[in-house]
Fold each of these.
Amino acid sequence: MERTVVEARGEQCPIPVVKAKKAADAMTGGGILEVHVDNETAVQNLLRMAAGMNGKAVSEGKGEKHFVVTIEVPADAAAAEDAGECSIMDSFPVEQKIQKNEKTVAAIGSAYMGNGDDKLGAILMKGFLFALSQQEALPDTVLFYNGGAFLTTEGSASLDDIRSMEERGVRIMTCGTCLDFYGLKEKLAVGSVTNMYDIVSALTAAGKIIKP
């Protein structure tokens, strides 16, 4: 059985996933893919990628800032993703899947809305998220990155509004690199952690992008 080792320690999101996906795609007959990374966020992203190709995966800590994710890549991994069964580029539940050009994505890159006074900007952002949560037709996904990561973590004044959207089926995703940078990883209060690969995939697949 073919075995491929990918060294991705020291690489920032989404490079470990991109490297691993390229290596997996090259293993047309299946095999074992061993990926070395240096953070838990990369581990979780790789496990999601493995699930997307219907492959079994395990992770193991080898030491400080050294994790190994071992993936059993099936022979039909590329076909599974092409069929859209569980692609890392489209992980919506089956009942939520719609044509790519019909998806709406809201991209929140700051805890403030607009430029000027931050106090006013925070008020406007809170109002925006409340108004968004009250729409009859909600976005399929809301992405939070950079300063927007503060909105999905403990202490955010918008948690109730964001949770109400998640309860109605909206996918809430916060950039893992951003959570790490601001020291908020353990304070995430709603939604899931994502990576730049999935953020770009969601944006490029969207028919409409809402950006306050």
Amino acid sequence: MTQEKRINPMSGWLPLIVCLGLFAGGPLFAAFAGAIDIDVEGRIAVWVVCYVTLFISLFGFQAVAPNQARVLLLFGNYKGSICESGFYWVNPFYSKKKISLRIRNFETGSITRPEKKDATTGKVLEKKSRTAGKPSKVNDRDGNPIEISSVVVWRVVETAEALFEVDDYEDFVAVQSEAALRNLATRHPYDSADGEMSLRGNTVEVCTQLQHDIQERLEKAGVEVIEARISHLAYAAEIAAAMLRRQQAQAVVAARTKIVEGAVGMVRMALDQLKADGIVDLDEERKAAMVSNLLVVLCSDRETQPVVNTGTLYH
């Protein structure tokens, strides 16, 4: 594995002055050579040396912008990386590869469209772009088809690994992030009623686990994953209606359970209060009738029509 080697090259201002001196030295040398009577062949040789040196030296200048880097190669051998912004001069025979250190993000399921150029003129016809993310269709742990996508925020931290260990590090990040997301979705259920970790109920924990899984896959590419968040999560269209009915049924059952618990508590409180205050003494049969009536009134989902007893206590 190629390890990054950061270098701090020479400032480009002094070589720039030297190059300007070589450029201006040709006419000055011509005047000086005429004064000291140097032959024509000597003048041409000096001019050729000066201007060839000047021409070659111009290829050594490098202006590195903030959050940009240059990877330097000498005839295929890695020599180092310039990661600090500034104006530099390096060996003109170095080949320089530009790489961005800026924070980037993308949504899984998106497709990168490459830059298109005119074959004859080289003019850029269409810039490099990325389509909108399309949710991935995958089965969760229980076998239910779901749609899921995520947003991944990342940046390059090891320039040598990003360029030399993988073929295309941007495509590598996209593919591995998609694979990690699919793998995560198959390990957890969409929803869980017994407190088990689920994709919908434990969003923070799931996103943390997703970030860790993606980072583990991208270690060899010199990439740091800053954040990974689920941006879309839903049942697939073919089972969405059935799952919605199931969720509605679960909500109704949970609501009814809560209503019954409250109604039983209110009935118990009414009986205890009647007995404590000595308002009326009911036998077991009348208590059962009272409990039945109260539960019907309290648990019914419609308005009840009470029957008022205008006779004796029991008739």
Amino acid sequence: MQIRAVTEDYIKDLLTNGIREDGRDPAEYRKIVIKPGVIPNAEGSAQVTIGNTKVLVGVKIGIGSPMHDKPEDGNIITSAELLPVASPHYETGPPSPEAIELARVIDRGIRAANMVDTKSLFIEAEKVWEVYTDIYVINYDGNLFDAGTLAAVTALSTARMPKYESEKVIREGNLEKFKVNNLVTSCTFAKISGSILLDPDGNEESCMDGRLTITNDQNAVRAMQKGLLGAFSAKELENLMDITFDKSKEFRRLVNEAAGK
């Protein structure tokens, strides 16, 4: 606890002089690298690094039953695992609240933007395609939401759609690309002693008063997730949405480049 207190005081002292610990501007991301196709046996996959944060996503598509209230829609199932190798704070066992929140935020953005048309996943009565998006945090240094969203969107955008023939799932041969309607990305901001920072690293997250993740496609904000007790004013929110739309242009370029578009 003493080490954290020293780190927190140091970061806050720097911010009073308008300086971030790593020298970035308040609205600047760390280096972002996207590597598609890193899991050969998945329908789609991607690894994203933002600074020292590293997230791996695999997409698997299989046969399942539709939900009772949506008999002609396929299913989207998103899960997240915070691997113990990623941080000394992560443990084995059931999903932690942090893992559940990570999966839900990423899932909500994909659904709200209608990135995947669930009706196109219908096969026949009582049989639909299920799209599993599995998120694995393999190194933590802050901002899992944006790294996870980029990895999930890239994995979906590069996935191949299996065929269903003679009651068998065909995963080999000439498969079409999995259809996505558009691309959704997110920007996460931390508020620390009145300063608002884009893409908080692990030290910054450890002392933030509030956190806000804004998810959008090229047309509109599709979802938001606020964490902790710190508040954001209406004027701050408007400014953060402008930053989000500006940054999302570069994110979409990176995803399209990774997908070979």
